[in-house]
Specification:
- The structure is a homodimer.
- The first copy, chain A, is of the alpha/beta class.
- Chain A has two domains: 170 residues, Rossmann fold; 182 residues, Dehydroquinate synthase-like, alpha domain (Up-down Bundle), CATH 1.20.1090.
- The first copy, chain A, contains 15 helices and eight strands.
- The first copy, chain A, has a six-stranded parallel beta sheet with strand order 1-8-5-4-2-3, sandwiched between helices. The first copy, chain A, has a two-stranded antiparallel ribbon with strand order 6-7.
- In chain A, strand 6 and strand 7 form a beta hairpin.
- In chain A, helix 7 runs parallel beside helix 11 and helix 10 packs across helix 14.
- The longest helix of chain A is centred in the middle third of the chain and has 23 residues.
- Strand 1 of chain A pairs antiparallel with strand 1 of chain B.
């Protein structure tokens, strides 16, 4: 076991009607709030009106920035940060899924400095402080609601990258599974894929941490048991709740304790797919994972087999495990090959080039540019 | 799934040589430290000298209170609180196992008020603030290093009870598994029993929280795999580390999310044994658990069988599960009957009376005084 620090300051409010607690929480940070949201689904569902009512009742002064895209871009981060600076925001309220909350984390770092949010990714800027961030989550997927990570795209540079800092933890996150009931079937499946991929990235990371491995397979088994049931019962509160909680636990630090690092190459590969073809994040991962597992099958043979045996509770070898995982991804409606998203062999060069620009690599299984063509060929 | 708030502010420093970090952490809270420790084992092992050296180098002004007993008593809490008040302590440094850290939590609440520490247990006093608490853990067992609970005995009232409050979380805890290597075999086993019992108390609690159940069985399986190995290799750092981390995760809130409550009747039963016969806490639990499981076997039949099937990875019924758990407790050197600790049938009345005084009951499986004689008879 590797030395580690376990520390997660986010206060998570989970369950039915927890949103009413916003009225007590937000004023703790001040009166001036910057409200962030995405492309309007919160307006259609009535959530926007509900949040505005809570903000009015709490006497908050609101500036709002809507329209943050799935696969969020640095231009929105910088524009929202400028607004927050002008508004002298005491607190940020992010209402949405991973895109909105990830953007909000970088906005919270960007407001206090004269920089673009991308400068944290490029290393040109170091965070000094952050505007307190409160999140209302509407999609079970990324785990951003209880972690320090944020993924942003910079199309000018052809990059989509992750960044993490201790200042990025939301102070509080409000998770009402009811709010995820409006998520359509395909994106519900992508969210399940995302949480499973987070577990696998840590499982295939470096270092020997047996209890973290057990927590990892616990979360994956939860997703494997209730994910398919949920896709057949999209309005079921209890199934929504189990998946939402699993997504939070999949990437809040719990699975990392005692490990040297995760791997995360599959996420880098998936980011390139999202950049080039606007592939939803979860769907990009279910295409990248089978290829990655096949490519590293020899050095990972025992580790893959142990995973399959634990997840499926029968003796499986590496090949059988990869097949079963592919089968699960298909079962939750996710693509597992480039062909499934209509990306043809003519795109191989563009993908390899995207891997090069984004320096695709793993924390455990190392790659060079020479590995990329074969990896892409397996997708 | 029940609504819940997940929040645990303790910063856990885990691994080899993490103690050196004390020098940076303690001054964050002020210069005046109240040092608490137990019955001298930290002096024999040299840990006391090491801590004092760190405190001197950090320029701390130290008042110290040693001699806190296993099964700690309110008299020590009140005397140490008086010393801390006189010293105007900015921070408490508790070095020891559950007894010292539990005492420190109540001392941290007692210093700011004109009360006995027991008044928090009896409801006569409500916490208003707490002196910040930093812990150095020397025994893997109770999980107190990352939770809000404290158990204290009041012999004048014949009570041993638990208390929990959000102000009781240690600000930081330092866990170097090396420090547990001096723990003798019997107490190492009792610690393993304690962490397993914490898991079982939550497993047999009220409410349906599937992922918490998976986390629970993960921790128990970790203890079942590495516990017996550790007892054969008491000097093995890696085994000490796995058990120490498992003990922390067994009772830091992780296993409670989404549940209505734990049960905790077995802990109440064990507390009575400790009060009457000074039975080590872990050993009291391995006597109480088989009796409790047998007593509630009918209403809990499916739940007990599911536990055994998951833990031992073969189809087991409730009876077989209870036998296997007893076998595991014996394997780690723990008593499973009153006879194993030389408490004879003549003590039944005293035990029943202890149950009455301590109002032994469960959060899930309810009891009345009429249940006590049969329960005691099964021990």
């Amino acid at each position: 076991m590797q030395n580690f620090i376990a520390f997660n300051p986010t206060k998570l409010h989970f369950g039915k009607d927890v949103l009413s607690g916003l009225a007590a929480s937000l004023p703790l940070y001040g009166k001036r709030v910057l409200l962030l949201y995405g492309k309007g689904s919160i307006i259609r569902t009535g959530l926007y009106d509900r949040v505005m009512q809570i903000l009015r009742q709490a006497g908050m002064e609101v500036a709002e920035y809507g329209g943050i895209k799935p696969n969020p871009i640095v231009e929105d981060v910088d524009a929202a940060a400028a607004l927050g600076r002008k508004h002298k925001a005491d607190v940020i309220l992010a209402v949405g899924g991973g895109s909105v909350i990830d953007s909000a984390k970088i906005i919270s770092l960007t407001i206090p400095v004269e920089h673009s949010g991308w400068d944290f990714y490029s290393g040109k800027a170091k965070p000094v402080q952050a505007v307190p961030l409160v999140a209302v989550l509407t999609l079970a997927a990324t785990g951003t609601e209880m972690n320090r990570f944020a993924v942003i795209s910079n199309h000018a540079e052809g990059k989509k990258q992750g960044y993490g800092h201790a200042l990025c933890y939301p102070r509080e996150s409000f998770l009402d599974p009811t709010l995820t009931i409006s998520v359509p079937k395909d994106h519900t499946g992508y969210g399940i894929a995302d949480l499973v991929a987070h577990c696998l990235e840590m499982y295939f990371g470096a270092g020997d941490a047996s209890l973290s491995d057990r927590f990892i397979t616990s979360v994956v088994r939860e997703a494997m048991e209730y994910g398919p049931q949920l896709l057949d019962n999209l309005n079921d509160y209890d199934l929504r709740a189990r998946i939402m909680y699993a997504a939070t636990m999949a990437l809040n630090g719990l699975t990392a304790n005692g490990k040297v690092s995760g791997d995360w190459a599959v996420h880098s590969m998936g980011h390139v797919l999202s950049l080039l073809y606007d592939t939803p994040h979860g769907a990009s991962l279910t295409i990248a994972y089978p290829a990655w597992l096949k490519y590293f099958k020899e050095p990972m043979r025992d580790r893959i087999a142990a995973l399959g045996t634990e997840l499926f509770r029968e003796q499986l070898d590496a090949d059988a495990t990869i097949l079963r995982l592919e089968g699960f991804f298909r079962q939750i409606g996710c693509p597992v090959r480039l062909a499934d998203i209509n990306v043809g062999p003519d795109q191989q060069e563009a993908l390899v080039n995207g891997f090069i620009v984004n320096e695709v690599n793993g924390g455990n299984m190392k790659m060079t540019e020479e590995d990329y063509p074969v990896l892409v060929g397996l997708m």
